[in-house]
Amino acid sequence: MTPDDTGAPGPVTPSRARLAGVRVLLGVSGGIAAYKGAELVRRLRDAGAEVRVVLTENAARFVTPLTFQALSGHPVRTSLWDESAEAAMGHIELARWADEVVVAPASADLIARLAHGFADDLLATLCLATAAPLSIAPAMNQQMWANAATQANLATLHARGVRVLGPGSGGQACGEFGAGRLLEADEIVARLVDGRGPRELVGVRFLVSAGPTYEDIDPVRFLGNRSSGRMGFAVAAAAAEAGADVTLVAGPVHLPTPRGVRRIDVRSARQMRDAVLAEAGANDVFVAAAAVGDFRPRDIAPHKLKKTSGDSGLELSLVQNPDILAEVAALERRPFVVGFAAETERVEEYAREKLERKRLDLVAANEVGAGLGFEREDNALILLWPGGSDVLERSGKADLARALVARIARLRLGKVPA
Ligand code: CTP
């Protein structure tokens, strides 16, 4: 069995594609290791990343902004108060621009300021203002590293989800020996790649349906449901993050398109069916995350229905919508087919029945009802496939989607799930 078969991460080798298109904001703080930040810019760009650099004022005493500008190909920022830089890309915009924020080297002083939420210079402000994952690679004298204050600050940051990369140990610039050396640039890149999860879906084509469908009753009314589309959008984002080419067929939702995803907007179940079937043959995986309305009005009234049209109530005659998931599963050349099952009771039993009846490759089942499923940010899933099952514990939809996508990748390759 190779390491990959176990699902355990193998050795990480930064290759060209591994950070392709990833926007890395590199913060360099003051210390003798600042010069190693220059090497890191090169390594990040070699791995395909787009890099912008911010120096603290102290870092600029060790290495000039010009060095970083030449290596990153972009102007370097050092101050919150630079009017021309703010006019080009304001600091909040820069914080939003980043997919990853990396501080290397991170000095004891910067770590202390981050731990306490200071926004007293540009770099600390960006770290506070960004929603991107933050990684710090500490570098300092070994006594400063061992100091209880530094360790407490690191523990605080770690508990908040900040990734601490290193430090290494060995001979130091100050002549001492011990922990506190900045990790090598290759190692930092490898850890970043690792932290972003495996790009195991490069070249795989993913089709995802998401959101509700609206079935018109008349020009102003429709039958809909409370699906927010968040789960399907998270699946599309996770697949794109793992390197897949993703097409997202979305019902009416208020969500931004995940980066790198091709989106087709539809309204009704029949529009969704047509869009999905037109794409299904060209895809390797279909994930049906949409909450498709099972019924639609037999006729759409051409004009707004009047109260007077139903003195003793109004009866709507409904007909069944096509089952998109079942139609894709019935295709002769079908993709790997994943369905969702929202159940209010006997979740596993009903979901397994759905897996078999619709001839699916995988079902992701969850319990819905008051306070569960549709309207929550987090969720839990039971995964069922022919011959196996697993539970993905309750977590945010983004993490859940990543775990689901990783499982699809393994099952599709016929690997033993980790
Ligand atoms: N689905 C679909 N097209 C439909 C209905 C559902 O593609 N017309 C997909 C959903 O995207 C989801 C799965 O099928 O992946 C849900 O199956 P479904 O049979 O609709 O679930 P329930 O409505 O819960 O089924 P039942 O009424 O049998 O409980």
Structural descriptors:
alpha/beta; 8-stranded mixed beta sheet; 33% helix; binds cytidine-5'-triphosphate; 418 residues; 15 helices; elongated; Rossmann fold
Could you walk me through the main structural features you see in this protein, from its secondary elements to its overall organization?
This protein is of the alpha/beta class and 418 residues long. The chain folds into two domains: 183 residues, Rossmann fold, CATH 3.40.50; 193 residues, CoaB-like (Rossmann fold). The protein contains 15 helices and 19 strands. The strands form five sheets. It has an eight-stranded mixed β-sheet with strand order 12-11-8-13-16-17-18-19, with helices on both faces. Strand 18 and strand 19 form a beta hairpin. Helix 1 runs parallel beside helix 3. The longest helix is centred in the last third of the chain and has 16 residues. The chain is elongated, with a radius of gyration of 26 Å. It starts with 22 loop residues before the first strand and ends in a 6-residue tail after the last helix. The N terminus is likely disordered. The site of cytidine-5'-triphosphate (CTP) has 15 residues, from helix 13 and strand 16.
